[in-house]
């Protein structure tokens, strides 16, 4: 084992000869001894053991079940296409092997291993955190920092700067599996316009394709696709097609033919292209771990980009396998043998399992190979890199096809490091109230792992949603960078206008609030990206009192806000904990504003179905604009600055062109705002560094006694 330090806050331990995952982009070489109580117990399969104190909190693990505090659970990093996110599930679609231990010691651990890793966080033995790596080759990083947030920043610093979508991707987005043809897509768009509900995108799920073949468009259902894309853009909507990992096996289908010709597909043990079945029936999986394959596949997006498409979602890239011929044959043989038998319960269960376990079987994952540096590597060993590299292929392709243009891109499967290329959505959840809470808890954990552009299927993918669920979920999702309503085939329609008039108006108010908040949301998002920071934080990352550690259902959003979403059916209020005095704005219509100072401590907060409670932290401010039909038509010449000032508040309002990567070269604007309270008055200092769009700032400043002062400053 080699131990070396990569910078003063990160120690890297190398076990054996690990496969390079490209998760970490920053490297250094100085040696330092391990001074932490993390014990390495086994050398064959790596096993790390840490004795937890009763009060230690464990954060992290990104896309996963359970709480912000991960204690008490067992988690497996093995990207899984499992659409039933019940609390007992150990894996979802992502593999995010980063956690933070916070107690008598405070440090982060990142296990850089692309196969299966198990995190037993006091599940088997309540006092022990145990990490098992299913191999003896891995890099393990220990990340230090004084504050929890510093540990995250040090981690983000080594895994690189996060993905930034175009600004329009911060608008509301509408999806369903599927809007099957251009008529239906247009009807959806017209309904948004008719109801005057803002919306930026409409998604094309698998049925836009011809026989589920990537990079094709059904001529029958979407005749003259290019014109249609343009027409929809003129109406104010961008179309976002899905791309799946599996390539249909079909003679004369170019993607298939090219893949075969160039040996671009994963192979079985005999070196023949591996066959699995997904939506189109039999497919091959491109070997995305090979840079040539990435280059090839990435360029394929061009055919849709040339039709005017500016965003994609990459799906089924764990990769999901419905079945293989091997599995199906076994199951059928099993069934044939059982025919006319009087099956006892065990034989029957085993027969049933042979069908139930047809999909995403470990045996199948173990039966195909990638070529890495000329060597065959079993897929099972590198499973978690697959979706990551599919998405990397897309992002690298975009860069080549349209340099310096931002595309919307998010993926279902992911590994640490993929945040540099795209966002993620959290996959096939349900229209269950529990899944709003899961969504709330997952967001800061995802941020710790670098995934800032993320969000859940608002309203739930599987199952039927009622109006109240859509209302409450939208009232939370309006704070998530990716705000997309999506639902599965066969479920009740859940677009905002699918409900009664009253509910439509409430959902519309929530979406309007989202658009009014875009100046703040975008500013906070971009600062988090540039500063390698988080956008959603648990309370305990800012407040160090004991109670804040326990709060799992309130979040800090950016620098100024705390939110306390409602996630229980029929609830018209909830308990809220305030770590300090704050300014409460219960938003019904964002244009009608009234504020209330709420005191530090616990309170029961009434929240009617119409209301979204927003808390502005002490000596902080919120910048608010106006809603519009989509992001491009936002008129933010005049912004409202809502501030809660007891002595001095500072805010940096960030903006940029919203479409290029020029911000990386420092081409962005900032307005520094400072409000200082004197005896009777406020001193306001504004330093505008390059923002030419904003002409006026309307201040609404509230002091500790609730006195409101309104004044306007021209820029
Ligand atoms: C998968 C995706 C889901 C999509 C469906 C059909 O289940 O997770 O979002 O709608 O496939 O493409």
TrEMBL record:
GO molecular function, one term: carbohydrate binding
Annotated Gene3D superfamilies: 2.60.40.4040, Glycosidases, glycosyl hydrolase (family 31)
Keyword Cell cycle attributed: no
PANTHER family named in the record: ALPHA-GLUCOSIDASE, HETEROGLYCAN GLUCOSIDASE 1
Protein name as it appears in the record: DUF5110 domain-containing protein
Domain Glycoside hydrolase family 31 TIM barrel: 164-523
Any Gene Ontology biological process: carbohydrate metabolic process
The Glycosyl hydrolase family 31 C-terminal domain, residue ranges: 538-621
Record domain DUF5110: where: 642-702
Family statement: Belongs to the glycosyl hydrolase 31 family.
Keywords: Glycosidase, Hydrolase
Presence of keyword Hydrolase: yes
SUPFAM superfamilies xref list: (Trans)glycosidases, Galactose mutarotase-like, Glycosyl hydrolase domain
Residue span, Glycoside hydrolase family 31 N-terminal domain: 43-120
């Amino acid at each position: 084992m080699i131990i070396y330090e990569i910078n003063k806050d990160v120690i890297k331990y190398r076990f054996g000869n690990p496969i390079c995952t490209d998760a970490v982009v920053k490297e250094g070489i100085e040696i330092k001894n391990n001074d932490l109580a993390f014990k390495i117990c086994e050398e064959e399969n790596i096993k790390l053991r840490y004795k937890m104190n009763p009060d230690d909190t464990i954060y992290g693990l990104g896309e996963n079940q359970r709480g912000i505090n991960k204690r008490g659970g067992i988690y497996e990093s093995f990207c899984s296409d499992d659409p039933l996110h019940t609390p007992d599930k150990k894996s979802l679609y992502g593999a995010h092997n980063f956690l933070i231990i916070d107690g008598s010691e405070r440090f982060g651990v990142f296990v850089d291993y692309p196969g299966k890793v198990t995190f037993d966080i006091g599940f088997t033995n309540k006092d022990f955190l145990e990490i098992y790596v299913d191999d003896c080759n891995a890099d393990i990083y220990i990340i230090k920092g004084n504050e929890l947030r510093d540990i995250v920043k040090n981690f983000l610093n080594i895994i690189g700067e996060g993905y930034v979508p175009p600004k329009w991707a911060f608008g509301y987005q509408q999806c369903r599996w599927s809007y099957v043809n251009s008529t239906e897509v247009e009807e959806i768009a017209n309904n948004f316009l008719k109801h005057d509900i803002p919306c930026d995108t409409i998604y094309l799920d698998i049925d836009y394709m011809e026989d589920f073949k990537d990079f094709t468009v059904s001529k029958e259902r979407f005749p003259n696709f290019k014109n249609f894309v343009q027409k929809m853009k003129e109406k104010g909507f961008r179309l976002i097609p899905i791309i799946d990992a599996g390539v249909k096996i079909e003679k004369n289908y170019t993607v298939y033919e090219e893949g075969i010709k160039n040996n671009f597909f994963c192979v079985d043990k005999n070196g023949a292209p591996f066959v699995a079945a997904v939506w189109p029936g039999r497919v091959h999986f491109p070997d995305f771990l090979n840079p040539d394959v990435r280059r090839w596949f990435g360029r394929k997006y061009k055919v849709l980009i040339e039709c005017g498409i500016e965003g994609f979602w990459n799906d089924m890239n764990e990769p999901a396998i419905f079945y293989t011929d091997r599995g199906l044959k076994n199951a059928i043989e099993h069934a044939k043998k059982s025919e006319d038998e009087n099956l006892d319960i065990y034989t029957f269960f085993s027969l049933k399992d042979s069908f139930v376990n047809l999909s995403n079987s470990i045996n199948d994952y173990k039966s195909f190979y990638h070529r890495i540096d000329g060597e065959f590597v079993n897929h099972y060993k590198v499973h978690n890199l697959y979706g990551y590299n599919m998405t990397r292929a897309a992002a690298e392709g975009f860069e080549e096809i349209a340099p310096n243009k931002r595309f919307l891109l998010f993926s279902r499967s992911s590994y640490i490091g993929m945040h540099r290329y795209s966002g993620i959505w959290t996959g096939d959840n349900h229209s269950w109230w529990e899944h709003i809470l899961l969504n709330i808890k997952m967001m800061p954990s995802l941020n710790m792992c670098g995934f800032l552009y993320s969000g859940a299927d608002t309203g739930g993918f599987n199952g039927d949603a009622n109006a109240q669920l859509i209302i409450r979920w939208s009232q939370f999702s309006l704070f998530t960078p990716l705000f997309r309503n999506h639902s599965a085939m066969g479920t009740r329609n859940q677009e905002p206008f699918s409900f009664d008039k009253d509910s439509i108006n409430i959902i519309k108010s929530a979406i309007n609030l989202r658009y009014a908040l875009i100046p703040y949301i975008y500013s906070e998002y971009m600062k988090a990206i540039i500063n390698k920071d988080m956008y959603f934080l648990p309370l305990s990352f800012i407040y160090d009192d004991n109670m804040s550690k326990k709060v799992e259902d309130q979040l800090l959003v950016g620098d100024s806000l705390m939110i306390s979403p409602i996630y229980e059916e029929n609830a018209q209020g909830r308990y809220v904990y305030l770590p300090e005095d704050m300014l409460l704005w219960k938003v019904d219509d964002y244009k009608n504003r009234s504020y209330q100072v709420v005191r530090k401590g616990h309170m029961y907060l009434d929240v009617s179905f119409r209301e979204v409670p927003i808390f502005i932290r002490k000596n902080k401010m919120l910048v608010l604009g106006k809603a519009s039909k989509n992001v491009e038509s936002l008129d933010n010449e005049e912004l409202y600055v809502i501030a809660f000032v007891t002595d001095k508040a500072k805010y940096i309002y960030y903006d940029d062109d919203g479409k290029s990567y020029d911000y990386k070269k420092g081409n962005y604007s900032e307005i520094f705002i400072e409000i200082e309270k004197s005896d009777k008055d406020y001193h306001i200092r504004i330093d505008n560094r390059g923002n030419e769009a904003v002409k006026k700032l309307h201040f609404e400043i509230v002091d500790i006694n609730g006195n409101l002062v309104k004044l306007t400053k021209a820029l």
